[in-house]
Amino acid sequence: MADRYLSFTGTAPGRFLTRRLGLPQPAALRRWSPERPDLDGGLLHLTAGKTDLDLPPVLARAGLGEDTDGRPAAVVLDAGGIRDTEGLADVHAALHPVVRSVAASGRIVVLGAPLDPADHHQAAAQQALEGFTRSLGKEIGRGRTVNLVRLTDAAAAESTLSFLLSPKSAYVSGQVIEVGEHRPVTPHDPLRPLAGRTALVTGAARGIGEAVAETLARDGAQVVVLDVPGAEQDARRVAERIGGTALPLDITAPDAGTRIAEALPGGLDVLVHNAGITRDRRLANMSAERWIQVLEVNLASVLRTTDTLLARGTLKRGGRVVATASIAGIAGNTGQTNYAAAKAGVTGLVRSLAPRTLTEHGVTVNAVAPGFIETKMTAAVPLFIREAGRRMNSLGQGGLPADVAETIAWLAHPASGAVNGQVVRVCGQSLLGA
């Protein structure tokens, strides 16, 4: 369903009226397309405090040239060297003069360092960057985003910086992403980084899952489109369009993992857990059946399938597991105790499994947590609740399935091996749940 309010605020009368009434003024977001793959404008690289990062070569490969006209499309502030409160003055000094000049739908990326448990002054200063980043994201407006990346190795963060400095991250803001020191794998074809890799997406016959399948196929993956037998016709339609294959299967079946492994004798490089259902009721009115159904599809099947595919060696070394969480699992939601419990469980899975899986199998485990995404499901939500969902974020609008898909594609990228155990919200920086 079209966002008529967003369209109205893009007109001169709409801008005038909403400004006079103090209403939200969302800006149309600049998203990726083959014709316009990069942001329009240059990059401004700033430093606060001393730095050991070798950023220029990495930033040069992000697709943006140096800013020359004082209207940067992106600003990268390297603040990883700040170790005390006094150093935070450098953050203000660096960004205060330029923040208004960042182009519409522009990007600000603050680079920080991991918190040092042996130095509470450094930890305090670096944690301060998180509060700063989230607050700036909520006030900057005009479709611009602000994110914080904690890192120690610029090369390991190349795929992350390329994503955050591109139109692909249009609906990702206010996020804190930890990047480890795993050396990146450079794909042979930067335009098709998943070429030669096999990806399986559950719940891929429609909605967000369909967008994920399309995006991974665009990036070169051979995609297996998995959905329940009742959606087999739609799954085959998607698979045919993207050059993939369909796998009709109930992901909650006890032997689902085994059947996936048997269907993929050559192994699997990317596993995307997207299948999910809702059965909303307040707890006092919720039957045990509704509770069990949601936990089984959204959490138990994810645990069982992942365990089986890891144990059987179906997930190859260098592989990626990306699960779908939700901001409901972070902030809670009325009428969704079952759904929120399941999605919070996905977060627990990621944080526990990620370090062990990387060490034992060479596989990363991450999650995306969508907020209000424009789908057929949200189009059926009552008008006033739907409008609240759209406006209750820093960007003042709902996201698109492509926003979730692009985030998953970044996490699935061969060069994203240093991103592990992260839960990245794709919510336009929802005003709920931080």
TrEMBL record:
Ketoreductase domain: residues covered: 197-371
Taxonomic path: Bacteria, Bacillati, Actinomycetota, Actinomycetes, Kitasatosporales
Protein's name in the database: 3-oxoacyl-[acyl-carrier protein] reductase
Organism: Streptomyces capillispiralis
GO molecular function annotations of the record: oxidoreductase activity, acting on the CH-OH group of donors, NAD or NADP as acceptor
InterPro entries: KR_dom, NAD(P)-bd_dom_sf, Sc_DH/Rdtase_CS, SDR_fam
Leader peptide range in chain numbering: none
Pfam families membership: adh_short_C2 (PF13561)
Family to which this protein belongs: Belongs to the short-chain dehydrogenases/reductases (SDR) family.
